[in-house]
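cache lookup: miss for this entity combination. No prior model stored, computing from scratch. Input as submitted by user K.M.:
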Amino acid sequence: MSTVKIPPVLRQAVGGDRTVEVPGATMGEVLDALCAQFPAVGSQILTGDGQLHKYVNVYVNDEDARLLQWTDTPVGDADTVMILPAMAGGAR
Amino acid sequence: MSPSYQDLLSAAREVIPEVEPSEVAPRVEAGDGPLIIDVRETGEWDQGHLPGAVHIPRGFLESRIGGVASDLDRELLISCASGQRSLLAAVTLRDMGFTNVANLAGGFARWKQNNYPVEVPRILTPAQRSRYSRHILIPEVGEEGQLKLLDSKALLIGAGGLGSPAAYYLAAAGVGTIGLVDDDVVDESNLQRQIIHTTDRVGVNKGESAKEAIRALNPEVQVNVHPFRVNRDNVLDLLQEYDVVVDGADNFPTRYLLADAALMTRTPLVHASILRFEGHASVFQPYDGPCYRCLFPEPPPPDLAPSCGEAGVLGVLCGVMGNIQATEAIKVLLGIGDTLSGRLLIYDALGMTFTELNVRRDPDCPSCGPNADLRLRDYEAWCAGVGTHDHAGATA
């Protein structure tokens, strides 16, 4: 089971938790499992054909998965997958 | 019998070689001279010193030399007014283990008599020395760094949640010119976090309100109020006036506009964003590190990126993140330490955790990559278009 860190905007979709434990041997499998468990997450981060939206950054531990093997990046039990959309807030 | 002052000097001459100004001046001019430590008092130093010399008053020599020379074999030349205090100082350094210490014969007086070049430092006024004394004590800042801050210009986009604490601390730190871009007025609902504003200034432009607070805190800071929104037509002129830009905007079009304009004007950009209990911070050094679009190539659609006005924000979080921005801005201005360039810092106030992610330059970055077509665009339309287009393709 890998730990997925859930950003504030998706927490409602997973029942309010900041982290969720899900199975999977790759980053893609982990996110698929997450979206299967919490369909509301999938509707926010996946395109119609099941690809990750370009505006969704995913980190495996402290590295950008785009620079690893993207959805094929292997993940183990000790690894953390972080979903990271940009935030805009600052002034108001 | 205890040794007299003359005895001490004689004994010192036995172990410390003396160097005439004529021997060292050509090396100083060529830039390959020894490290010169001037041990006179501050008032003497202020009147002029050898070029490139480092000032450590005699009374602080033992405690501060380590911050200036860590290598015990480094060649040191000690100077004072006439070469006597420096001779005894050289003995102390020798006792501390420095192996290559010489004394400037005749001191600064003989140097000056021979018409070798002299540097007269720009100096702080007594009032500034008192106000900034805690900065001056820090070796990485010192009087030189404080003068640099006083000459610096920081532009803050937004005088709101992030801009309030950032502007307050940058002003306290003595950043000489602070520009505040905000077209909004102070609202009662701002006061839970925008601590530079006050209840009696509700309804006042935020830049003007912040200017009043800064005047009360540090009247010597020049505050430029820019009571409008930053846009394609004004952003380049605005950024060109400043040494660093602190992004505390509240929307994606402004953030992407700033990111591109910062590249075009080569202005370091100190980024932070906040929502509820979470904050992001980074530093984007144009073409030297990643840019905002290397990190976030496209903005998310509005429902994945609510504003603090829609989703809320813990007031204190603004203080933490705004002050991280102020810290990074000061480091950028002084050129000290390791900034957040190449790193995204994520602060989770609920878990009280700080997480760091690596951010790398994207070779295909549409803004800073080698094949980028960098130009200012209609960011409102672009952000809306990207969001709706992508999102329309998503399953429900």
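stored under new cache key. The helical segments of chain A are 27-37, 39-45.
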